[in-house]
Amino acid sequence: MSDLPLPGIESLTMTWAAHGWLALLAFTAAVLVVAALRKPCRRWFGAERAFQLWLLPPLALLTSQLPHVTASPVQLPPLVYTITSAVGAAAPHADVTGSFDWRATALPLWLAGVAVAFGFAVVAQRRYRERLHGATPMAEVSTSRPVVRAASAGVGPALVGVWRSRIVLPADFRQRYDATEQALILAHETMHARRGDGWWCLLAQMFVALLWCHPLAWWALVALRHDQELACDAAVLREHGTQRRSYANAMLKTQSAAFALPVGCTWSPRHPLTERIAMLKLPPPNRQRRHTGIIAICGLTMAVAGSVYAASTPVKGAEDSAKATTVYQLNLKVEQNADDGHASQPEGMSVELCMAPGKTGTVANRDHGWQIDATPSPEGGNRLRIDVAVMVAGKLVAKHRMDAKLGELAHVTDKGPDGVHDYTIEVTSLAGCPARVAAEASPARVTEHAKNASVRVVAEAVAAAAAWTLVNPDALGNGSVTLSFKDMPAGTAMQRLADLAGMKPIFESKQVRFEPK
């Protein structure tokens, strides 16, 4: 036995699942675009323009979460139509087992993964900073960022941090590099700071932590750091283009970092040295090609953002992407039976509820103390998840989460903990609200009480009250029914009677005819 999730938690998991799915699709599409274009763009427009392609994944992800301007859905009050049999004393409390909701498990699992990914990044950053203990300032070096000499030759060169970033040089910086190479190393790390590469690294780590379960996110992190170094090299050579040989020598003399630096730029084996040196041999793109690259990337950015926004329009929150239905009708029937060895009249209630997706409809029969709450939630395609709760005399007697398909009957039966009472819940869900059409067919309202009366006779009484003519009343048959209509719209009563006979009413002006369902 299990209870349904609290409404707040349920709403949170539904929103998370819908928005998370859109985010994953948008991010995947954008990364695949970048993967396909990064090398051609580097060849045509230069490494700096190729690195700017990495704006696409975060932009696509954020665009997928933007609200869409749509017409407000019609907020219809729940339409309640009841037919009851004799209801006896309140039944004891009973819970009905609900179906498994993967979102209730996936959300905490995802949050745990985010925490672990962030934790590993924080630990790696702290481990690198611990290796800077004993570093001494280098006041003789004039740059826009503070420069320190590490206590070890295996640390640096690197740009560390974001807000108070500093340049770290190895302990043997003066001995390892000649004067020209020293200037180029400083120019490289200063260029990282000028380009805001520390912020790029921080943003990339945040996205990887949030999308830790997506393999492409981890590949994108490595590829971005690689393109970042190539772009920095290209920017340095635009200002020191005559010193390519010295720049290549400085690269060859620099050791790869032994520890990862999540937020910052360091020389790493993830940045293939052979490719960086090969890039030095290529002629840099001229100004015209660089400007053309800016225009091309801006156009691509707008195209990707527009496509993602358009593709995510039908799906927001828990709406049905296939139909964008603004209202559902639930035809519910709830029965309580006693299995005590004695024949007993089933006690129950039949209702029709019309409500917007995610909204709860409530119907109560005060005469007998029954209350039914139902909430439809689209699951995609033509499927719904329907949460139903039944109370009798203020006590919860049945609760269930049902998976239903539009137009088809779904039901569940379970026994209460006393072993005496069992409960049956049947529901047929429909897109739109046919019952509302029936309710508006006539302003007349009817009050009818019948016991073992003919369906046809009751239908003729309802038609007379609404000033209708029944075209083919024989289609209803002469089956007997026990029912109670209390101040009910005539159209609603007629539809209920047709349902009992397995027919559907067609309202045409002042005439009503019946057709098979």
Automatic annotation (TrEMBL):
Q: Where is the Peptidase M56 domain?
A: 23-280
Which branch of life, at top level? Bacteria
Which keywords appear in this protein's UniProt record, sorted alphabetically?
Membrane, Transmembrane, Transmembrane helix
TM ranges: 20-38, 50-69, 107-124, 199-221
Q: What CDD domains does the entry give?
A: M56_BlaR1_MecR1_like
What is the name attached to this protein's record?
Answer: Peptidase M56
Q: Which organism is it from?
A: Rhodanobacter hydrolyticus
Which lineage ranks, top first, belong to the organism behind this chain? Bacteria, Pseudomonadati, Pseudomonadota, Gammaproteobacteria, Lysobacterales
